[in-house]
Amino acid sequence: MNKLDHTDRKLLALLRKDARMPVVNLSKALGVSRATVQNRLNKLEREGVILGYTVKLKQEAQQDAVRVLMSLLVEAKEEEKIIESLRAFPEIVSVYHTNGQWDLIADIQVDSISVLGGLLGEIRAVKGIIQTETSLLLGLVF
Question: What is this structure's pTM?
Answer without folding.
Answer: 0.59
